[in-house]
Amino acid sequence: MSTTALVACGGNSTENRANTAAPTTTASAKIQVQVPPAAAQSGATQVRFDPCVSVGDELVSRAGFDPATRERAADESSSSLLTTIGCQFWREELVDGEKFPTGGLGVTSSDMTLDEIRRNPGHSVFDSDPIGGREAILYRTPQVPISCTASIKAPDGIFTVRLTVPPGPVAVPEPCDQIRRLAEIFSESLGGN
């Protein structure tokens, strides 16, 4: 499956791609698949937490996704107005000898704020209970009904977990029925408050 589903959910371009990695808060996560460095950042605020190197395979597996599918997020971008860096993962199920995607998961860090998401008329916030002891919001974008998102307050802005469930022959719970559990798992990569 291509990354089209995830692109449709949250942006689509990577500007200023360079071989310069963004600083990270930790590089101790165990990861089997290495990815290229994040885009060089040109914004006033640098996004230091890179989920591609800070979210370990153990969390990805516990969430039900395949760590071997780790790749840079399709909606990763860097500009003077907004920086988003991170990775995406896939899960599949075997049906009659053929693999079908049952979910695409993006984990990104951004210099955006929770207030910016709340004020965006394109988002429908349905939960604002904390996750991992941090302020958080769960929301959907009505124009993309196959996707659901959780954003958690982080030192550089927000840490976002986005689940996309493509239509197919495998019955899978709705993305918004799964997003809180996934966000709780991935929030562990942020460490303590």
Helices and strands in order:
Layout: H1 4-9, H2 51-54, H3 57-62, E1 66-72, E2 77-78, E3 83-95, E4 98-110, H4 114-119, E5 124-127, E6 136-140, E7 147-154, E8 157-164, H5 175-187
Antiparallel strand pairs: 1-3, 2-3, 3-4, 4-8, 5-6, 6-7, 7-8
What's the N-to-C terminus distance? 37 Å
Structural class: alpha+beta
Number of strands: 8
Q: Oligomerization state of this entry?
A: single chain
The global form is: globular
Please give a structural write-up.
With about 190 residues, this protein is α+β, with helices and mostly antiparallel strands. Helix content is about 20%, strand content about 30%. The protein has 5 helices and 8 strands, in the order αααββββαββββα. The chain has helices at about 5-10, 50-55, 55-60, 115-120, 175-185, and strands at about 65-70, 75-80, 85-95, 100-110, 125, 135-140, 145-155, 155-165. Strands 1, 2, 3, 4, 5, 6, 7 and 8 form an 8-stranded antiparallel β-sheet that branches. The termini are far apart. Mean pLDDT is about 85; it is low at about 1-25.
Question: TL;DR?
Answer:
The chain has helices at 4-9, 51-54, 57-62, 114-119, 175-187; strands spanning 66-72, 77-78, 83-95, 98-110, 124-127, 136-140, 147-154, 157-164.
